[in-house]
Amino acid sequence: MTYRTRRLVLTCGAWAPGILRDLGLNLPLKPLRINVCYFKEKRSTSAHSLASNFPVIKDEDDDVYGIPSLEYPNMIKICRHVNWKTGHSANPEQRDVDIRDHLEEDVRYLGNLVRRHLPGLEDKPAVVETCMYTNTPDAEFILDRHPQFHNIIIGTGFSGHGFKLGAAVGRLLSELATDKRPFLNMKPYRIARFAVHIPPYATH
Question: Do 189 and 12 form a contact (C-beta atoms < 8 A)?
Fold first, then answer.
């Protein structure tokens, strides 16, 4: 099936490196697998919930964050916020393959933190899920036009914090796609901040 359009906005997540490579653009993007752990309260008091005003937590030294009980009753979501250097590289098509070593490492790391700082929680996760980051070396977004095909708008490299800024990102991408002046300075998000070689694109 073929679709035709005058403008195209690509927000492909962890699939962006391969899709953009097919368009002659080799960006510094690294898909990372994140082990999302939910730790259960020892006693079901809901003390760690939003309704009890339990805060979002972030440990800058350990690069760990936690979100109050919401998705699963009486469980806190706690994850490592990894970066370009510390994350587990993964093919998005095989993100649940060969994860045991990385999973055991993260469960041990987070369990130690829970024992030290959150004594009201069990120190082993009751639920473990996976998600994907797509990181850039500087952990900043890429929001820009394709250097050769200006009708292709690219939004990628959100590095684990794109969802939190989804409204602003959506507005910026729509402004680029409709030739409006972006409401923010776009220089920090340009492709040009990386030394990217862009070969002439040839159709086959």
Answer: no
Q: What is the pLDDT of residues 30-85, one digit of tens each?
A: 999 999 999 999 998 888 998 899 999 988 887 899 999 988 999 999 999 888 88
The CA-atom distances, in angstroms, between 172 and each of 162, 168, 169 are: 13, 6, 5
DSSP 49: B
Burial 154-183 (b: 16+ CB within 10 A, else e): bbbbbbbebeeeeeebeebbebbbeeeeee
- Which of 128, 134, 132 has the alpha carbon at shortest distance from 100? 128
Residues 77 and 71 sit within 8 Å (Cβ to Cβ): yes
* 126 Rama sector, left if φ>0, alpha if ψ -120 to 50, beta otherwise: alpha
